């Protein structure tokens, strides 16, 4: 089984400035099974070169093995080893910035008092003008109660903040939306709904994130009903959109008719139930599901899916298997059938490593790093905010999934997430549906 390379370190490495020396370092790292990420030249001396090399290792012991091997190389000096991920998080990942420069007294009077009072009056007379004269229409609240942070479970909202900051950074990077994490010190659905309603005037939309099931279902439904701005639980619908897109692409490459295929979902929580609902709504006839909870299985039945008794039954019967349980290593290699599509989407660790699934005979396999809701939520919100839509509807989500699939290369499951084009096409697809239903 291939290990997971979850230990990421930046090595400050000095080598002689002669051809082949970087090659010696890279070969040594590779021979011991380390994966090289970024290489940055930070300083060039008279006879030496200093580089920052990011290395992905299986464990601390594996890292030590690599360091020891490097120190045996003649002329190579390791000056520092730092934790790249922790370092990137120092001080947090986001920061609210002024769009206007404030240098003179007249700037001050225009941006702040007394000038600002005139703008307040305009908005008081016509609240719609808040869309023009404030950032509200381009701002999304990322709301969590910390109860299902990735697959780490109920670790609380503050421990979940790095995820929320990450989502905010992605909103900014991909679609220019300003997003603000809101951490809730309550898990009570009534209180969550009341709090989100009370803060909603400051936002153009609400992204619910990592709120556990089953209370996430009630919270989202009530907020959608009671607010006149778009609300979406990312773990449900963002994930369902990207999963459907990946499966459409897999079927296209494998020449399978998706609607006639049997789809099996392991884990019927927030992500899993929404995936089943989306496949049913897309016209897939056979959608099966497994969960430890009888209530979760009853919800699947309510939406037209078929609960199965065991994971092995599901693995035997389904052409396409998706897992969102948060349980690493849940799917055994020996359960995989030749040609199956296996999407083990739990973060930070999947139910089966894609390499293992492929080795066991899967035709396509991916984990939650690749098939990730980051391909969906930025464009979906850009689209509804552009259209000034008050809802995110099922046809919009289907259009988003089809847009992602349409810009996926044959043989791939999804487009590269850093490809700006995918976020733009999702946004355009959602906006088009929003305008057509006005
Ligand atoms: N790749 C992506 O874009 C996304 C991945 N996820 C991942 O999916 C996982 C679950 O997230 P949520 O649905 O929000 O959590 P959740 O807590 O709502 O759902 C998890 C479900 O899995 C079930 N489960 C747990 N162990 C099981 C087992 N051994 N067999 C069958 N069912 C089992 C639970 O009963 C529960 O219904 C997390 O690891 C999360 O990171 C979630 C959203 C997006
Ligand atoms: C990607 C994501 O939203 C999750 O794993 O919870
Ligand atoms: Mg999430």
Structure description:
- It is a single chain.
- 42% of the residues lie in helices and 18% in strands.
- Among the domains are: 7-89, 2-Layer Sandwich (Alpha-Beta Plaits); 103-134, no CATH class; 135-234, Rossmann fold (3-Layer(aba) Sandwich), CATH 3.40.50.10380.
- The protein has 17 helices and 14 strands.
- The structure holds 1,4-dihydronicotinamide adenine dinucleotide, pyruvic acid and magnesium ion.
- 1,4-dihydronicotinamide adenine dinucleotide binds next to helix 10 and helix 11.
- Its cofactor is Mg(2+); Mn(2+).
- Pathway: Amino-acid biosynthesis.
- This is Malate dehydrogenase (Oxaloacetate-decarboxylating).
- (S)-malate binds at residues 347, 372.
Low-confidence stretches: none
Judging from the principal axes of the Cα atoms, what is the shape? Answer: globular
Q: Please list the strands of the largest sheet in the order they lie side by side.
A: 11-10-9-12-13-14
The CATH architecture of the domain at 135-234 comes to 3-Layer(aba) Sandwich
Summarize the main sheet: 6 strands, parallel
Q: Please report the distance between the alpha carbons of the first and last residues.
A: 52 Å
Could you name the CATH class of the domain at 135-234? Answer: Alpha Beta
Binding site for a divalent metal cation: 209-210, 235
Binding site for (S)-malate: 347, 372
Active site: 112, 167
Domain ACT: 10-84
